[in-house]
Amino acid sequence: xxxxxxxxxxxxxxxxxxxxxxxxxxxxxxxxxxxxxxxxxxxxxxxxxxxxxxxxxxxxxxxxxxxxxxxxxxxxxxxxxxxxxxxxxxxxxxxxxxxxxxxxxxxxxxxxxxxxxxxxxxxxxxxxxxxxxxxxxxxxxxxxxxxxxxxxxxxxxxxxxxxxxxxxxxxxxxxxxxxxxxxxxxxxxxxxxxxxxxxxxxxxxxxxxxxxxxxxxxxxxxxxxx
Length: 226
Hints:
Elements: E1 2-11, E2 17-27, E3 32-36, H1 43-51, E4 58-63, E5 66-67, H2 73-83, E6 84-88, H3 99-109, H4 114-127, H5 143-155, E7 161-165, H6 173-190, E8 193-197, H7 201-205, E9 209-214, E10 217-220
Helix pairs in contact: 3-4, 3-5, 4-5, 5-6
């Protein structure tokens, strides 16, 4: 599902630096890998390249069979709408929309409306334990519930890949464990693969493989490479 070969990313400016250097990564369908590294090590840049939000300065990026650097900006936008789901640390739910409308956003962007959208939103909310909160204002939800909404929104359009950037960073340990378990379960049910950026030891242990990003280089954590 995800294949990066010799990916490079350089930042120019008064103090130019290499953010990613000869990065190789392969993620199979149904697999979740965790990326670890210090703040500023390039983890978010790597996610952005996989999502087509940033273009690499070298190497190849193939996601769901599509060579992303070959696409123009409009094609990349369409690709993300169809194939990518995002889960963020800060949830990024829209406060002026209720729970159901937040989850429906990816479907709305694809032109799916009416009963078709409502049925998929209801099913996804039920799968994350929020079947009774569809009409609730998001301000009434706890942090753990907001992250469940974010997971439902990330998967409602059945993307090929899910990219999660510190999805448990704002949660207490018990809620964090529940969210990672739920994310894995829902990804498996929807047939998606995932890349998880995390500082959490517990979250990393739940991944199939763990990589460390250091000095621009991605390396498998000992004992996790298959």
